[in-house]
Amino acid sequence: MLKRVPTSQPVRLAVLLVVVLSSGIWLPSAASAQDDEDERGQSVTDREKARLEHVTIPVGGFALKPQIEVDGSYDDNIFATDADRRGDFYTTVHPSIDARSLWSRHSLDIKAYFDHDFHAKYSSEDTSEYGISADGRYDVSHQTRIYLSGSAIHTAEKRGNLSSFSNSGEPVRYDSFQGLAAIEQNFGALGFRVESRVRRLSYSDAILADGSVDSQKFRDQTIVSSALQASYDLNTLTQFVIRGTEESRRYDLRPGDPGFDPVTQIDRSGDSTRIEAGIVRDLTGLLSTTVRVGYLNFRYPDPQLRNINAFSYYGSLNWNVTPLTTVSGSAQRTVDATTSPYTAGNLRDEISLTVDHELLRTLVISGNARVAWIKPSILKGLPYAIVASSREQEIGFEARYYFLPRLRFTGNYNYQTRESSNKAIAFKENVITVGVSYVF
To answer: Is the CB of residue 110 less than 8 Å from the CB of residue 82?
Structure first.
């Protein structure tokens, strides 16, 4: 069992960040004295979105935003490997369309996109990704709201993902289907939210370096989760929240089925429970924080896998420092699925920070940083196995220049690294991207 993890370095740092996030919870509100309160309460990101709203196409009760983006990138480690690093230039074409309702009540947002990468040297890395999603809200009354959403996506595993299939000659493609239904009900200061979510993952065969095919059907799975959240509004600025989530993960192929996990012979199906309580504090749009702490448990019926029991936490911060600068951050703990033959799951502690600054009315610059600690849960019967704990670090910078209301130029630099005692999953990567996008 994974216990005493809270004394680890990532937990100490995460708790420290949660304390920092929550330190703003009891700050007095001084925004009412600002002459520019409305503008100051709007984030840089919100202002960028509002700028694009003026170039949408009204059709009936919807605002359409058809857009195309073309990016040129250089990646100095296209296969995300520790040794034999290889670089490549590639071009990405990204057309998309967004249809957002303009109704006074209810809402509906439909999005569709298509991505295709063209690599100059390694055409095996070319991928086509596409998808469609819809998010809707039905306002039964001021106290009752119903939410429905769904998505269908065809995508490919990123080489740098910890769970990606490392022996493939090209990225493994897979389909993701997701649906959500939720209802919110308010009784004065007391509110409830009940939701149910279903996700389906279906993997295509992996093409190996020698051209042979490796079936990935053993990874096909269905994930069903349900959650209940209760909240209490202490006042207009402070809300207390308690949330419980139950999740069931079931793989299509179970022990005894033809094709069942040919490598590990492990059934990774399982159930999880997460219970958290916390507080949401909003200082008139200038500073909002969310802090939740609790307990998470992952249970596996396969006797070879260890159950995971650990302290759970989540913290977020959104701070409009000035009318031109926005800071956002988060800290959380999750459990990632894994296909490693030696581990049951990866306990991930992650902290991220983003800063957006409107240098000019037409120029926005951004910086982001992320650090994550990953600790695997070793299978039973392997007491002397080396725990290949990892640490991921990422830092990036971006500039977005609006040459015209409909025309935007971007420049981006991103550095990512994973340090691990297991050299097979360690890598460093630098990616430089320049692009242009146009809203029709």
So the answer is: no
Q: What is the pTM of this model?
A: 0.82
Mean pLDDT of the chain: 86
Given a contact cutoff of 8 angstroms between Cβ atoms, the answer to whether 267 and 254 are in contact is yes
What are the backbone dihedrals phi and psi of residue 23, each rounded to the nearest 5 degrees, phi first? Answer: -65, -25
Q: Is the pLDDT of residue 135 over 90?
A: yes
109 touches 134 (CB < 8 A): yes
pLDDT for position 130: 97
Under a CB-based contact definition with an 8 Å cutoff, are residues 305 and 344 in contact? yes
Condensed to tens digits (0 to 9), the pLDDT of residues 206-263 reads 888 888 888 888 889 999 999 999 999 998 889 999 999 999 999 999 888 888 877 7
Angle at 28 between CA 22 and CA 33, to 5 degrees: 135
Q: Of how many residues is the chain composed?
A: 440
Average pLDDT over residues 41-54: 75
Domain residues for 208? 5-439
Residue 68 sits in a domain whose CATH number is 2.40.160
Mean pLDDT, rounded, for 271-299: 91
Can you give the pLDDT at residue 379? 74
Cα 404 to Cα 383: distance, rounded to the nearest angstrom: 62
pLDDT digits (tens, 9 = 90+) for 365-403: 999 999 999 988 777 766 555 567 899 999 999 999 999
Instruction: State whether the Cα torsion 385-386-387-390 is positive or negative.
Output: negative
Pick the closest to residue 353 from 14, 42, 29, 51 (CA basis): 14
Angstrom distance (rounded) from CA 184 to CA 103: 20
Beta-carbon contacts of residue 163 (< 8 Å; ≥ 6 apart): 157, 336, 337, 338, 339
Instruction: Label each residue of 16-82 as H, E or C.
Output: HHHHHHHHCCCCCCCHHHCCCHHHHCCCHHHHHHHHHHCCCEEECCEEEEEEEEEEEEEECCCCCCC
Q: How far apart are CA 85 and CA 241, in angstroms?
A: 47
Burial of 90 (0-12, 13-18, 19+ CB in 10 A): buried
Query: What is the rounded average pLDDT of the residues 68-73?
Result: 97
Alpha helices in 216-353 (DSSP H): none
What mean pLDDT do residues 266-275 have?
Answer: 90
Q: CA 86, CA 77: separation in Å to the nearest integer?
A: 5
Q: Vertex 375, ends 369 and 381: CA angle to 5°?
A: 165
Total domains in the fold of the chain: 1
Element (H, E) at 11: helix 9-23
Closest residue by Cα to residue 435 from 72, 183, 45, 13: 72
